[in-house]
Amino acid sequence: MEEGMEPGTVRPGGRTARVRAAVLQAAGDALAEHGFDGLDLADVARRAEVGKTTVYRRWATTTGLVADLLDDMAEQSSPRTDTGSLDGDLLANARLVVKTLTDPRQGALFKAVIAAATCDPRAARALHRFYATRIEEWAPCVTQAAERGEVPPGTDAAEVIRAVSAPLYYRFLVSGDGLDEGAADRAAGAAGAAARAGAYGS
To answer: Which residues belong to any copy of the HTH tetR-type domain (predicted)?
Structure first.
């Protein structure tokens, strides 16, 4: 590991990359099954068929492992859909969020990593990086909409993308209301209407 780097932040190739991939897959499975409180490095090592010493040396703590898992999720996330219209793009974004959160494994995994972020600064920083990456991926659809004249010039693209997903995460984490395509359609429609009305002027 390079001097000054935190455990779990190395991006090596070859065998080490294969070990990292196996451990992160195992960590995701364990989180989805047992939540953050049930995450155990020895169990992850067993699932990944990797020596415990390797896992403890490279990640050191469960929060270090969660942080690296979030970084990997950001790297592997689905590319942005480009439909050619703001409404179509925001709808694609909203439906992707709903699809992810309602997936049995992915939904449980997101709840676990969000729980980790509430109690550990390193996990919180990783979660913030994850969402910053997703917003950066999708914000160009708003910029392009401004260039086409669909929204006012100077519309804050990141705020529009946040406005799409925020009500969906509220349903997922707080209210317990259902998440389906109808919820996705309403979130995307409301964000698009507000953007056209100039609500997100920078």
So the answer is: 17-77
pLDDT in tens, 4-60: 344 444 444 577 888 888 999 898 888 888 888 888 899 999 999 988 999 988 888
Overall CATH class of domain 14-74: mainly alpha
Global confidence as pTM: 0.79
Class of domain 81-196: mainly alpha
